[in-house]
Sequence to fold (781 residues):
Amino acid sequence: MFRRPGTVQHGLSIAFVWLAATGMAIAASATSTWSLLPLPADVRPAPSGVVEIADGALVAVRGADREQVQPTVDRFVQLVANTRGLQLHTATTADAHPAITFDVDPGASVVGDTGYRIVVGVQGIRVIARSPRGAFYGAVTLWQLLTPPGWIRGTASEVAEGVIDDHPRFAWRALLLDSGRHFQSVADIERLIDWMSLDKLNVLLWHLTEDQGWRLAIAKYPALTKTGACRKAVGLDIELTGAPDNPYCGFYTEAEVRDIVGYAAARFVTVVPEIDLPGHSQAAVAAYPWLGVTGKRPPVWTDWGISPWLLKPDEKTLQFVDDVLDEVMQLFPSQYISIGGDEADKRQWNASHELRARLRQFGLANMDQLQDWFTTQVADHLIKHGRTPVGWDDELVTGGKLPASEVVMSWHGSHEERVALEAIAQGHEVVLTPQESLYFDHYQSDLLDEWPGQPPMTTLQQAYDTDVIPKGATVAEAQRVIGVQGDLWTELMPNFVLDQHALFPRIAALSELGWSAASTHDWNGFLQRLTAELARYRALGIGYADTAFAPAFDVAAGREGILRVALSNQVNFGEIRYTTDGSAPTSTSTQYVRPLEFSAQGKVTLRAATFVPGGFDLAAPRTQVLDPSTLLSRDGSELASCSNQPGMRLGGGQPAQGPSPVYKVDVGDMCWLWRRAPLKGIEHVTLTVGRVAWRFGDEAQGAVVRPKASAAGEFELHADSCTGPLLARLALVPAVRGDGQNELNARVSTSKVNDARDLCIFATGDPRDGQWVLARMAFSK
Fold:
């Protein structure tokens, strides 16, 4: 049913009350009455009045393109039922007064085919658009209006009256999904398309070919998937396949691709395929060795990094590429086709007499120019067929040029987007996707329980504060930036649970970068609106990361015999509430306002979680045990690397019980530093260690090898520096023989260093034989 209450108090929504309770009360505005993300272009709430949408409310479709709009409306009705718990019904032509009307009029006064207007008033709610696409985005915003902060499933929704006029800032609002390193099921990809469309993203750049796997069936070249889609199971891949002898395989059939493309199109998401050339092609060369320059057949790569197995830039290879792209164009109707072009390690090219002769034949100066020639031939084939090539900016980094028609994805974001500016200067349209802030495989926090990810840390705020227009670009140059893209590379993401954690909620920041006007960019406003969005994610079943809001414990020695604990979170948002009896905190538990003090001689289980007023939990509880041993132990993630470089967070093997461990590792250097370790009175040390498979091709040359004192190797503890006094040596024999994590124990010689000193902890041996990792170390007296 639909009714219009006579009072305004309900219409100001829970969000306004919440802001007041947090000391951030503002005048009734769009951000307080309508918690929308991404923020629309223009929001004009009325001074009073609300419309109530309850169970049984009618939804009508009027105007043009009804058959095309009806599926969007049906999905909207189902979405409201699944999340808000309200059962809306489609109106018939005889129903005179529907609560919600979708009205598609090609002459509507909205901005473009993607724009829409929502009018909330005495006649109910109207979604007005020129096209089905605009109606879809209006439906997303209307769903958000029905799920404001503090919404309760099954209750009627009250929507404040007013008008929203909206349209996107950029045409390209993209997410890259890497299916080459790790393979996602069709069902999971379709779930992701659903979710990204609800954040108004409209491009899925699908990375389908890699050194580690060719994932797209090509009828003319069956070995690409028969051979190229399988690699030997190494490391965590063994858990996925069940045994080291079972290869890690996966590819998408023509029928599956058509299903995914059609599913995306119904949600106004364009799937842009990426066939990466000439690099990231070891799987293709493994299938057809004549595609490489050596004539040899490599294995499908099991390492991560940059392989030197490039495609051979000759006419036979170009015919292969043309054939592949012809089939790709049959499967993907997208105007855009990505041909990659990134990270082409030219060692094999440089060693080839044949290719050096080709340089002389073409009058080229170097192999970078030969790559330019190759890319131009590939791009020309796409252009001849009416498609637009897309590629990475790597050739511009080396001073080269890309085909004038190519859209450039600029990921080299350092040096104030110099490469993006060069692409614009050369006349290219550009998509900004800087690795520093929009590579979502980077981990999100420095919490001890942070999930696997690449360094350096990329926080939610770093993602939100991305400069989409390069600094220094003129107004005319800024027009050549067609959009923004977040990238999920999946070397460290072997399953869809990890994918979700890496993407959400940073994808919400990406959404606002792509859709909302630059003038509305406001980090604090984004955080306030994100609360409702997180509740929507939860209702949709998205396993998002709560790390931006999670409590962190800073434990230090206070006055004699006292432990002092400070609590905080990354974004300094929400209320941190805690318990000291080991129970889970609730929204009514004691609120943290100042550092806490506890006796170092007792034992307290301190648990903390973050809430917004009203009870919504922003972060799950975290736990810190406080006892006499607290200051004498460290998680491996708390230790610095000996190189002072940010470590990679690597997932460990699944134990018999409990979650899989995650280790912070400086790949290639099995060495950690504990600054000012408390050594007074210490007699014993326990190390909890594990081992991860070496899969790091890029790091092999820089691996640090320390001499072993025994065949199995050992961990050593040194005071002051890695060459300082030896305090303990712990043989690795028990760990070599065991699986998973193992404890090593030894006495500590502290006769000459009986005070707080810097410690160097390292493992001997060659990390390329298997990288030792340090989960935890603990001293005892």
